[in-house]
Structure formats: structure tokens, C-alpha cells
## 1
Amino acid sequence: MELIKFEHIYYLYGLILLPILLLLFLMMMQWRKNRMKTFGDVALIKKLISDRPIYKYQVKFILQALALIFIIIGLANLQMGSKIEKVQRKGVDVVVALDVSKSMLAEDIKPNRLSRAKQYVSNLIDRLQNDRIALVIFAGNAYLQMPLTVDYASAKMYTKTITTDLVPTQGTDIEAAIQLAMESFKSSEDEKKSGSQKNKVIVIITDGENHESGALEKAKSVSKEGVIIHTLGIGSKEGAPIPVYRNNVQANYKRDNENNIVLSKINEVMLQQIASASSGKYFHLSGNNDVLESLVTEIESMEKKDFEERVFTDYQDQFQYFLALGLLFLVLDFLVSERRSKWLDRLNIFSEKK
């Protein structure tokens, strides 16, 4: 649900011109100052050039910059939602639980496990239609990154921001991830009314290095409530070292107490058991699209449920106001003369007397 949006958001990239223009303006002002010094004493030259403007260059630049800002926003066409309707949708509730423990930085899957998993989640979101999706991240603890929604653009944005630094407690507590996913289902408005736990699926993406017990038992308990868990394993059986970063630069690899490099290996057996306990399926996440197609097929084959979503269905264009402001600042810029104004002269004389 969006209250404000831009119809042509790519025009906003034009705002990148502002710092460039500011830099060029400052360079020009410095160049003018240096040129003046080559002719003699600056204070004397200022007195000789009686019609030299004092602050008009800065004022004209500000007016031009404001005109550019409002014109760009006008071209992007800011739109505001003016009408809310209840839209009836039919789909499945999907909670994606993504492992963000440090072992997900292992590079046996290029560029690393976490980057590949995030790319997979983004591709999965692109394939959803009327299904609601939520994002849960977990390591030693689990956190809700985004509640159930059909706002796929926001879901992809949240996915891009996921890093291993979001969860301070290290580990891989899959049980906590499943528990939080179940709470996400129950907290939705539809579930408060119906109490139903059907038409729900949890997708767990992890290397399976579970450091906490209880994940299998938790999977069995949620299965009794009609929730399906699909597990996606990422990593290699041979394992890979876990990079250690300092100031975004790799400094070493994770080592044990005997200073040996620790290898992180995928635990497929446990992930297969979790999926099997909840009538779900296990997939090994690799470089091809077969896994995505298989998972989407599983989701689409589930029985759909009806739920209401309040969305803005009517948007009013606001571009004319911004273009008018941009034109106004251009007119003001045109009216500001390059020559020195008499009222500035009077102000300067008054300050000199003081």
C-alpha cells in the first residue's frame, strides 16, 4: 500500500547533477577570485568596479538549483493516493526465513552464500502474484524484517539491505526462525479473524549449520497446524572457510581454538528432516533456475485463500505544482540582474559608516 509514488522515478537520477553543479560553481568563484588577484590589490579593485555584484552570483545559483530540483520532481510526476479500496485477493502466505550468520559469507557459492540467497529471494518475489510475503532474518536470534504484505517493491528493497551485521548474536537458531514465522502468520489481520493456519508456507534458506536444538521438533509441531516448511540448503559438502572482515576488508578466516581454519559445510540431512517433518521439500540451492521453478510450482499448487488488502487505487498527479515552482524560480533568476543594485550600495554605505 503506497500513499505517495513517482510515476517516472528514473527522472530523479537527475538530482545527481546538483552536487556536480555546486562543485563547478565553487570552482568558478575561486577562479574569479584568483583572476582578480592577478590585477592587483583585491580591496582596491572592488572599489574601482562600482557596479560589481556582491552576492548575486550566489543568489542566482540558488535560484537555478531550486528550479532544477522542482523541474526534475515535476518530470518524475509525484502522485498521491486519494482513494482507498478493499481489494479481494486470493493467494498463499509465504514467510521467507533467511540465515544471516557469518557462515553465510563463505564463498563456495559465488560471490558468497548470502549474496546468492538474496538474489534467489529477489527472483522468488518476482514470481509471486497475489501471494503475501514476509521476511525473517535469523542467526543466534530471529527478527522480523518485514511483515506480511503484497508490496513486492518494498520486499525487494528490504532484501537488498540484509547483511550479516543485522543480527548481533551469532549462531543459527532455525527453531527461533520457525517460531517467529508462525507469529507473523498469527499477527496478520485475517488470522485474527479466522484463526486459520492453512495456506501458509515457510521457506528457510540456510547452510544448515544449526547450533541450537529443537528445530526438528518445532517443524513437527507447526505441521500439525497445517503449515508447510520448504528448506533450501546453500553451500557445498566439501565446505569453505568463513572470511573475517575488518572495516569492510577481509583480514583473515575464522579459526578454532587451535588456530586451524574452520570450514563451513552444508548440513543437508537436517534440512531434509525439517522439510519432511512438515510435508515440505528440500532443495539444494545452486546456480541454475530449476530450484526456483520447483519451489514456485509447490507454492502455486497450494490451496489459495481469500484475504482483503487495502490499497490506493486512485492517484492524483502533482507534477504541475512542481513545474510551476520550477518556472517561478527561473523567472526570478532572470529578474536578478548581473549588475549591482542601488539598494545594495546604500546598504554597503550604511555598513561602512558604522
## 2
Amino acid sequence: MVAETVLRERSIAARLGPGSAVQHVHSLGPVRIEVPPLLTGQHFFELWPVRELPDQGMWAAKHYDSFAPPLFVLRDVLVHSSAGILVVGDTVIAESLAYTNPREHGYRALVRGIALPSGPVTTLPGIHISMLAAGEGDYRHSMLNGLARLSAVPENYMLAAESLLVPEDATGQDEAIDLLDLLPSLALRKVGAAQTLRVETLVLPLCVCGEAAYHPCLLDFYQRMSAHVGPAPGPMPRRFYIDHRGTGIRPLRTETAVIAALAALGFVAVRPEQMSLAERVRLFRQAEAIVSPHGTALTDIGFCRPGCLVVELLMDAYVDWGFRNLAALAGLRYDCVLGRAEKPWGDLDLQFHGTPWDISVNHVVAAVAHAVGDALAA
């Protein structure tokens, strides 16, 4: 048998106290963000049964209260895997297990904790900042739950730190780090899924998003990257549709017909995943109107200028309001159109997230034409 260390699971708040290895530095104050009503989308929710995340009835929300991002300093802490699983003494920090997978991130799940296999440990003296988080293979998680946490780290901590701990092979992070133009004194240390570090002093910004409750500091993250991207070398479409064909994720069976119909309104189909991050910044920054099925490419609406229109295509069995809240934070105009997933709905597992679905082309065109017309009249 492989030697293991059994660890109890406790929240980070439970580790606080005088003389503790975990210290809470501060939290950014929560902010109430107004969420405009859905121009067309409200009619679907008044008539159709849906399943919303994280809570039912959110389609009618008039605001959200942002998460209050906390900053912690941990001393003599074990940091395990690219997910940044944190071990203090004989406990594992519960928050650091979010979105992790035992097989992928090298641990065994127990009823009240985890078991870590024994193995080599690399010691890191000095001060280091953790951007480690699970879900690093997904662009949305990699950027918003991972690297965006830099926006909650004060400059004096950045100056004092020796390195930034980032997941190995995290989607989009290399390009984002280049655009963030970090201090030359701050080295990058990539952490693999099987690695374990013992860090003398770890600066940990816990989160800036909560459950899609984005704190305004997130806008600093987008603006800082955008500031380092020059103008486009040539014309780019101001109205575009984010083409999901070929991605294999949540195939929209009427997508080709939707794209053809929107072309009459001046929309061009684009594939952001085939562009560099700098190209995507330019594309979204100059956009007038964007239509897209729900998907990670909408993470880039944070680069849009206030007033840009975003129409998200959602399926009734999986309504995730993360991008609506991001649009509200960024001052964008947002609406949605609802389509229908295959039934029975089943559980919201990863396999179901990818289920095929349909949407009415007429509904999409009518909603977009209405919203674009209002935008031009405004």
C-alpha cells in the first residue's frame, strides 16, 4: 500500500486565531451591483420550467451583492498540486478543495477529509503568492477563479513576494500573465498536478467571484490586460456571433441556421478559441453587439466597453447566470434567449452539461433585432 497522510477538512476561518499559522489580512468590502431586467428573456422564464444556477428565480433579480474577497497569509503551509490544496498542520483547508478531482489532483477523498500520498516535497523559503486553483483546464475557471485573484493583492505584497505560484498548463494564463506585465522581480513558478511544496509564507487571495458574485476589483484585471494591447491592425467585426460548431460542447443543433439568420443583421461568426488573447481583447473591446451560446468564450466580455450588447443563448435545463452578472458589473446591455435541452433532464453532471439542445431561430432573430434596434436608438 502507498503511505498516506490522513487530514481533517476544516474551513480557513476555523484556523484563525492568536498565534495561528493562518492570518486574515483584510477583506474588500462587498458592493451591490444593479442587474438590469431582461428585455426579451423574461418572457421565457414566465412561461417555461427551467433549472437555474445557483438558485431558482434569479432571472428576476434586480441586483447581486458581490463577494467580499479576503486576503490571508499562511505560514509553513503545504501546497499540493496545481489546484493549490492547502494543508496546515493536520488539516486540509476546505476552500482549497473547490472544483478539485481526487484522481486529477492526487488525493483520496474521505468522509471527513482527504488522504494525501507520501512523496517528495519541495521547500520554498520566503514569500510567495498563490494563484493555484482547480478547473485550470477551463478558460473561465482558469481566468476568473484563478489568475483574476491578483486584482485583490495589494502592491506591497506583490513587491515583497519572490514568486507567483500558477498551475502548469492552465488555459490562457501564459498569455494573460504577459499582458499583465508583472514586476520583473516576481518570478513565475508553475506547479504540476503531482507536485507538493512546503512554503514558508504564502499570500492567498481566496476568491474575487464567489458564486458568480463578482467584486468590482475584477474590472481592474481586465483593464490592466487591455491597457497593454494596442489597436487592431485592420478592421474587425463590430457585431459577431461566437461560433460553437466543432467544439463538441453542448452542441446546438440549430446553430448553422442561427448564424445564417443573424448574418442579415450584420453578424459575423467568429471562433475566439483560435485567436491569441491579444486578438480577443481587440475583438471584444470594439464590439457593438455579441450573440453567443453559453460558453467559456463569454469570459472575454469583461474587455467590452460599457453599452455593448450581449445576447446569451441558454438551454432551459442549465441556466447559469455568471455572464449576466459579469455583464452587469461591466456596464453592458444583456439579454438572453432560452432553448430546450433533450429530456429527460437527468442530473447536472459534466456529461449532461454537454447534452444537445435546440433553440428557435425566430426567437433569436427577434430578440437580437429588438435589442440592436433599441441600442441604435439610445
